[in-house]
Design brief:
The chain folds into two domains: 2-278, LarA, N-terminal domain (Rossmann fold, 3-Layer(aba) Sandwich), CATH 3.40.50; 296-374, Alpha-Beta Plaits, CATH 3.30.70.20. Helix 1 crosses helix 2, helix 2 (61-73) packs parallel to helix 4 (98-105) and helix 8 packs across helix 10 (250-258). It has helices at residues 14-25, 61-73, 89-95, 98-105, 133-137, 158-161, 168-178, 182-196, 231-241, 250-258, 299-306, 322-326, 351-355, 367-374; strands spanning 2-8, 40-45, 77-82, 109-111, 115-117, 130-132, 140-144, 146-150, 154-156, 200-210, 218-228, 268-271, 309-312, 332-335, 338-341, 361-364. The longest helix has 15 residues, at 182-196. Strand 10 and strand 11 (218-228) form a beta hairpin. With 377 residues, the protein is of the alpha/beta class.
């Protein structure tokens, strides 16, 4: 039986936030259960890109500050660490408020930059997984994800937040290697989760993001913080709160198939109130279409005509070229501020949309999704 703790929290105001985080950890035994005196504790927020906290792209600095203080009260030595996908670490920590928090508290702020190979279980799809040594060497990892949608994986919650322990340039390699298979990418995320082994996951859902997240969706106040030792169980519970069918969530399918974490609602004990009291109506999630619907020989045809594809909003695009840098398949060319997509090469990872600072990349629905929409499927 896995425990998922939920607490209503309407503000990042320090007193209210501290009370909510204390309360959400109580059913799990409190911070003292996870942090021993002298322990070096990695706080792993979501630092996707250089966006201000009010954009709701990254974990709010108020959450990180409060958790750091709780770790200190338990006798631990907290430090903040992440590896943003594309943008320079210094720019990201300055814009997201993390540099200010670290300076205020006098704690280290570390770029996860030193990869180390880890051994995966027998039967794994992957063999050469490397994770930042700073995460592996920490005595304790506290996972601090943001509640957001994700145009490739539907949602980015507790498990996916640990993709940030993969050193920056290797993220691109993994996106390319998993290619069109969302369930394979979900399996990769689960293996990273098993290797990092966070002691506890504390989810920032006071404000989250719906729509076309994780970088360019719509901020939405959700008034929620959640915590669990089992990040898989936490992610499943959040999907239920948001009324997302579990079968549509790639991480659920991969976790159930691999027997990783608790995926059965009957074996997840929700603390803090009934699940119904935390339901969030009308939460907007991306529409995901199948990325492989014909035999491999027809991949080019399917990708060009049947499945959705990224497109440029020329009126919004600033011609910065960050999407070109982010593309793991080298499928984008920028010519005089106009983007040219090679849809045969495109693997539909949507890293371009994720990294665009102006929200200038959208989606054109594929024929398959348009047909399904027409029949309300």
């Amino acid at each position: 039986m896995a425990i998922v703790s939920l607490v209503h929290c309407e503000s990042y105001e320090p007193r209210q936030g501290a009370a909510a985080l204390q309360k959400v950890l109580e059913p799990l035994g409190g911070m003292d259960r996870f942090v021993r005196p002298g322990a070096r504790v990695l706080l792993k927020p979501n630092l996707l890109s250089a966006r201000a906290p009010e954009k709701r792209v990254t974990t709010d600095p108020a959450i990180v500050r409060t958790v750091a203080n709780m770790v200190r009260e338990a006798g631990g030595h907290p430090f903040i660490g992440d590896s943003p996908g594309i943008e320079p670490f210094k720019r990201v920590i300055a814009k997201t408020g993390m540099k200010e928090i670290a300076g205020e508290l006098g704690i280290d702020l570390v770029e996860l930059s030193d990869p180390r190979r880890v051994t995966l279980p027998d039967g794994s799809l992957f063999r050469n997984l490397e994770i930042a040594s700073q995460a592996l060497d920490a005595d304790v990892v506290i996972n601090l994800p943001k509640l957001k949608t994700h145009t490739q994986m539907l949602m980015t919650l507790g498990v996916k937040n640990l993709f940030g322990t993969i050193v920056a340039q290797r993220k691109t390699e993994w996106h390319y290697m998993t290619g069109l298979n969302r369930d394979a990418f979900a399996s990769l995320l689960l293996h990273i989760y098993q290797a990092v082994r966070p002691a506890v996951t504390i989810l920032d859902g006071v404000w989250g993001m719906e729509g076309d997240g994780p970088g360019n969706g719509d901020p939405r106040q959700l008034n929620l913080v959640a915590a669990a030792q089992d990040a898989v169980a936490l992610d499943m519970t959040i999907c239920r709160i948001l009324n997302i069918p579990l079968e549509s969530f790639p991480l659920y399918r991969a976790a159930r198939a691999g027997g990783i974490g608790e995926t059965s609602p009957e074996r997840i004990e929700v603390q803090g109130g009934s699940l119904e009291s935390f339901r969030i109506p009308g939460f907007q999630v991306p529409e995901l279409d199948s990325l492989r619907i014909l035999p491999g020989i027809f991949d080019g045809f399917a990708k060009r005509y049947l499945v959705s594809k990224p497109v440029q909003n020329a009126g919004t695009c600033a011609g910065c070229g960050e999407c070109v840098e982010a593309c793991p398949a080298d499928a984008i060319e920028l010519v005089e501020r106009r983007l040219h997509f090679d849809y045969d090469a495109c693997i539909r990872c949507y890293c371009c949309q994720e990294i665009c600072p102006r929200g200038a990349i959208g989606f054109r629905k594929g024929l398959l999704l348009r047909i399904l929409n027409r029949f309300h499927r």
